[in-house]
Amino acid sequence: TYFPAISHPEGLPLRIQDANGKDWVFQFRFWPNNNSRMYVLEGVTSSFSQSNSKLVTGN
């Protein structure tokens, strides 16, 4: 699965379902950074991190 292309800095909402079937909504956006962009997922909370503590680099 890949992230969708976005052309506006405000981005778009992404609904993601975790391994337990719980839906989470994040804002996928970017910040201009010199000649490139820095992509971020806003709204990742400690509850998401704790309930998905088995996440590892590359997931």
Would you summarize the structure shown here?
With 59 residues, the chain is mostly beta strands. The protein contains one helix and three strands; from the N terminus they run E-E-E-H.
Report on the structure:
The model has no long low-confidence stretch (mean pLDDT 83). The chain is mainly beta. A three-stranded antiparallel β-sheet has the order 1-2-3, with no helix packed on it. It has one domain (1-45): DNA-binding pseudobarrel domain (At1g16640 B3 domain), CATH 2.40.330.10. Helices cover 10% and strands 41% of the residues. The chain is built from one helix and three strands. This is TF-B3 domain-containing protein.
Largest sheet, in brief, is: 3 strands, antiparallel
Structural class: mainly beta
Tell me which CATH architecture applies here: Beta Barrel
CATH class (first level) name: Mainly Beta
- Poorly predicted residue ranges: none
For the record, the count of structural domains works out to 1
Please tally the helical runs, counting DSSP H or I stretches of 4 or more residues.
Answer: 1
Distance between the termini: 10 Å
Q: Examine the coordinates and then state which fold CATH places here, giving the name of the CATH topology.
A: At1g16640 B3 domain
Q: Would you report the number of β strands? A: 3
CATH superfamily: DNA-binding pseudobarrel domain
Question: Mean pLDDT, rounded to whole units?
Answer: 83
Q: Which percent range describes the beta-strand content?
A: 35-45%
Q: Output the helix-strand order.
A: EEEH
